[in-house]
Amino acid sequence: MQKLIAKLSEQKNLTMRQNTPMAEYTSFQIGGPADLLLEPATKEALISCYRILAEEGITPLILGAGSNILVSDSGIRGAVIRLAKPLNQVKVEGEYITAEAGVSLAKLAAEALSASLSGLEFASGIPGSLGGAVFMNAGAYGGEMKDVVVETEYLAKDGNVATVTGEAHNFSYRHSFFSETGGIVLSSRMKLTPGKQEDIRALMLDLNARRKDKQPLSFPSAGSFFKRPEGHFAGKLIEDAGLKGTTFGGAQISEKHAGFVINTGGATAKDVCDLMNFVKKTVLEKYGVTLEPEVRMIGDFSDTL
């Protein structure tokens, strides 16, 4: 590890921290320490950093805004590359927007609004970054990234930069080419539709008001916790099972929206997993439906799953 740290220390435009609690970098505010937290400020620094880690046999976790993940209490062995603050350039060209992976979806939607481009209104309130959104084909209120993304530049597992276009993204529900291959999104080009700025703004305000009204935004969470089972809605199944407000330690099924697991204060990853297992067991017994987490679980969960 010291040899690796020495190599990384020589890199330009790279910030490195050791034994950093991941609770500070996730929307759930849960997670033990990562051995190394790396923040490249440029695409070149990211590529160089990734290749150095590959030489040491380390596959890093790529972290954007830290939403939609649950990090184990024991943390992450190896390295985390965080893209949330750097890699946040946006370029508008006619009906197209090209943005780097670290751009927040809120900023991306705001840029589209400023350019009178419609198609990203659904993303304006999603607490994540573009890279993660493309990786998992994030969506809300009838819109998904697959509706707008036409080209993506990515860093392949072999350390080479490549491009994927159109249907080759292989988008489906919370899935993409990148979740299959482990490729790292560097930037994406999106095709939008010209529209009236006042109409775009009105739709964004309406969706965000609906989100604020229905979702527990005042508590840390990872967003919708469970995938939508075919023919059902996870939140409704959980609510109908009488599980709203169910609490394990600091983790709770939100009383506002049963599809959310919230951190009421001091929740551990074990609390969340114990609650998740209880909910899955109850819903399966009552309705014969198996719920699966939409949230990515990172680290060692062998004692809790």
Summarize the structure in words:
There is one protein chain. This protein has 305 residues and is α+β, with helices and mostly antiparallel strands. Helix content is 29%, strand content 27%. The protein has eight helices and 19 strands. β11 (149-155) and β12 form a beta hairpin. The longest helix is centred in the C-terminal third of the chain and has 19 residues, at 269-287.
* Secondary-structure element pattern, one letter each: HEEHEEEEEHEHEEEEHEEHEHEEEHE
| Sheet having the most strands | 5 strands, antiparallel
Beta-strand content: 25-35%
Q: Estimate the global geometry from the Cα principal axes.
A: globular
Structural classification: alpha+beta
Rg, rounded, reads: 20 Å
In DSSP terms (H or I, runs of 4 or more residues), the helix count works out at 8
Number of strands: 19
The CA-CA distance between the termini, in Å, is 30 Å
- Strand line-up in the sheet with most strands: 6-7-13-11-12
**Average pLDDT number:** 94
Contiguous low-pLDDT stretches (5 residues minimum) are none
